């Protein structure tokens, strides 16, 4: 569809909504009409099929906030099919001329029409000449893996990664053409690297050009090194910073650290999947470290001060309250994993009361005396209550 058609068609009228309609109202109207005129519900009805295309075309523009804004502005300027220009006669009359002249013809000197300027406004429509410059091409993304220790994951670490990536060919410097020759703009896609095809007469699909494989350029005499692709393999070692707090199997994206782009295009991204070794005694729960701490029966019953290790190697003293039950948790603040803001989580302790497996006769006698003296109520009385 030409740029002239985009501007002269009233897409709001096609959808049956006002120009000030909200996005939800436009979507609701489109869905209703799409169901009404969908080819699956109107087999063999060419009028319904044409109406479905028209509705889809309208929603593609006014259903997209950016396209809708550009469409409204273009119709405000050129929507009447022609616009008034002052004649300079002072009579205030002016003269009309068809907007089609702007979009379909250039000036007498052979210049391009206004359609070439506005052609990209809605993703196409204007004339494109064979002088179109090939577009920049983004570099490929690179995937790699890194294995680090538990403490390195908690505190962050810089690792060296040796990678093989896709780079511009060193022989032809990325052109793909043999030395002494130059590539030409692809005639099929006119240098854009993309082509559009219509599926089933209804939906348009844009995909890389099959002639130039998305490069926008073709070569008559390909480079002997890269065989015309313009790309080559290179190996390099990169120092990559793994942030503090990374989790096992977490995938990190490093923007712009992938393969270099073509024709001034941006580099791709580097994705690093991090594997973290388990620690002998410490575990993790988000930003906190965890540690199971064994305590004796008497320490739990009477209370005690004990030393526990931390990941940085410096032990801390923790107070266990008297009468502490098995599985009780204590918190040591600031001894956990590093957060994004530089602060640290906590060290979460789980107390595991150890019951001795073997007792001497003297120990048994003392415990029996304790049991008799404690006069504890029946701890299991509640198990036999009425249901």
UniProtKB/TrEMBL annotation:
Localisation: Cytoplasm
Record region (Disordered): 363-387
Requisite cofactors: Zn(2+)
Positions bound to Zn(2+) 1: 169, 172, 223, 226
Gene name, Swiss-Prot/TrEMBL: dnaJ
Stated family: Belongs to the DnaJ family.
Quaternary organization: Homodimer.
UniProt protein name: Chaperone protein DnaJ
